[in-house]
């Protein structure tokens, strides 16, 4: 299998699929493309050869392309059923799917104001945006409430006990909370630390920090000289 991804510093969607496959020991060839959404860019031209969306991630298995992170997760869960990528219990599995779908389609304000930027530290931006943007504050409050409820029901260490697709889906949020210094309760902070302590997550972060590839379109708060 091949997994097409974007820059590890910025591409939150790529992180989900990459983290899931790496954590569960699913072998794949990584094909990393520099993020560039211009119509005639190498990024667009390369992706056009494998999928119609022009976006990452894309999983290609024996020539068959699966795009969209949620579709990739479902494909892998079926192909590697013995690895239990979803929670085993039916109600927990349904709830995990609900949370992933909510993350997949929602939280637009948080996404747009708090883009993933692993190598940056922007706590002053975090404070200002939470104070000035009520939609972002609502998104953030919902995520904290969501995680709190899961820990009430399952006790941790991850959202459904063991690491699952749900944790992979929220790993970019963990990164955002760290980058922007967002205030969270102690057990949420501990969860974020556990996610960052995963060997697969550590590998992604290390490689993201090593990229040194400043992309202005993904940097609403900094210039190349201040990075």
If you had to describe this structure to a student in words, what would you say it looks like?
By secondary structure, the protein is an alpha+beta fold. The protein is 54% helix and 7% strand. The chain is built from ten helices and four strands. It has helices at residues 12-23, 42-48, 69-79, 90-105, 108-113, 123-132, 134-154, 165-179, 186-197, 199-211, and strands spanning 2-5, 29-32, 58-61, 64-67. Strands 2-1-3-4 form a four-stranded mixed sheet, covered by helices on one side. Helix 1 crosses helix 8 (165-179) and helix 1 packs across helix 10 (199-211). The longest helix is centred in the middle third of the chain and has 21 residues, at 134-154. It is globular and about 45 Å long. The mean pLDDT is 96.
Structure, briefly:
The protein is of the alpha+beta class and 227 residues long. It contains ten helices and four strands; from the N terminus they run βαβαββαααααααα.
């Amino acid at each position: 299998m091949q997994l097409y991804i974007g820059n590890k510093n910025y591409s939150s969607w790529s992180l989900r699929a990459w983290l899931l496959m790496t954590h569960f020991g699913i072998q794949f060839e990584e094909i990393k493309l520099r993020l560039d959404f211009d119509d005639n860019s190498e990024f667009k031209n390369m992706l056009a050869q494998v999928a119609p969306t022009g976006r990452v991630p894309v999983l290609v298995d024996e020539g068959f392309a699966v795009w969209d992170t949620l579709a990739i997760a479902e494909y892998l869960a079926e192909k590697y059923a013995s690895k239990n990528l979803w929670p085993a219990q039916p109600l927990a599995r349904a709830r995990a799917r609900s949370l992933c779908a909510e993350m997949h389609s929602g939280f637009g304000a948080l996404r747009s104001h708090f883009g993933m930027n692993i190598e940056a530290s922007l706590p002053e931006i975090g404070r200002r945006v939470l104070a000035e943007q009520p939609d972002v504050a609502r998104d953030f409050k919902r995520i904290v409430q969501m995680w709190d409820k899961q820990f009430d029901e399952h006790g941790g260490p991850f959202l459904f006990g063991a690491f699952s697709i749900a944790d992979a889906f929220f790993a970019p949020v963990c990164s955002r909370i760290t980058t922007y210094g967002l205030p969270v309760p102690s057990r949420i902070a501990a969860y974020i630390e556990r996610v960052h302590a995963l060997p697969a997550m550590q590998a992604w972060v290390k490689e993201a920090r090593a990229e040194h590839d400043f992309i202005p379109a993904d940097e609403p708060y900094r210039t190349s000289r201040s990075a």
